[in-house]
Amino acid sequence: MKLHLEIWRQAGPTQDGAFESLDVDDAVEQMSILELLDHVNGKLIEQGKEPFAFASDCREGICGTCGLTVNGRPHGAGKNSPACQQRLFNYNDGDTLKIEPFRSAAFPIIKDMVVDRSALDRVMEQGGYVSINAGTAPDADTLHENHQLAEWSLDHAACIGCGACVSACPNGAAHLFTGAKLTHLSKLPLGKEERGRRARNMVDQLEQDFGHCSLYGECADVCPAGIPLSAVAAVTKERARAAFRGKDD
User: Fold this and answer.
1) Which segments constitute the 4Fe-4S ferredoxin-type domain (predicted)?
2) CA-to-CA distance for 31 and 37, rounded, in angstroms?
């Protein structure tokens, strides 16, 4: 399989970047986007050249580390899949693949395709936790929750925090990410104690680092975890609930 690649090269945060062109004549359809970059980097190293920097970890679609953009779409052509699970059979022989980092003001470039996504961490630091009494674990039967609500919460907990939603959004909003976390933690018993404080703090941080959501919907289309667009509504809903109930909630 032959591919023409345009890969972003940028030495550092304060350096100018540009696309570097190269051709691959021996790609395999079953390769993932990351394996293609591994293949390219292997040849560059053999030639004594600097490989391209990109982030990856588990390569099982769980960690959310492998964020990059292919032909203008976060992660790649396949719907709701991370870059490590995007296979080259989604493209045709002779295609041009333009590979670059996630583009967002909230994600400054560190090097090549590696970006700083600590803005998402700052949102989580404001409320991505639950308060429990230390000591002996409570009996599971004392926490009553119906199956449907538990499944709804866990569906939103599937968010891997990759940042594709932010990169896909024309406004650079992170409402799908924040809404997923607020929905997950507000539904389960252990997350209800600081529900109001969590909503106020997380949304306040969200508005400092990210753009305003205009419901374009691109975020849900590229989300590897399949978080529904309805999660965005939790940002306004949980924040309004916190304002109505007051500071003690």
Assistant:
1) 150-179
2) 10
pTM: 0.91
Q: What is the largest CA-CA distance in the chain?
A: 64
> Pairing mode, if any, of strands 3-9 and 69-70?
unpaired
CA angle 1, 76, 94 (to 5 degrees): 25
In this structure, the number of other CB atoms found within 10 A of the CB of residue 219 comes to 26
What is the architecture of the domain spanning 3-111?
Answer: Roll (3.10)
3-state secondary structure of 118: helix
Q: Cα(1)–Cα(24) distance, rounded to whole angstroms?
A: 8
pLDDT averages per 10-residue partition of the chain, 249 residues? 97 94 95 96 96 94 92 93 94 96 96 97 92 73 79 92 95 96 86 88 96 91 94 94 76
In eight-state DSSP terms, residue 12 is S
11 sits in the region (left: phi over 0; alpha: psi -120 to 50; else beta) called: alpha
Nearest 5°: phi and psi at 74?
-55, 130
Ranges of each domain in the chain: 3-111, 119-245
H or E element that contains 33? helix 33-46
Q: Hunting for tokens 């849900």 — which residue is that?
A: 220
Q: CB-based contacts of 9: which residues, under 8 Å, 6+ apart?
A: 17, 18, 19, 20, 52, 112
Q: How far is CA 209 from the centre of its chain?
A: 15
- Give the H or E element holding residue 18: strand 18-24
Q: Are 186 and 249 in contact (CB under 8 A)?
A: no
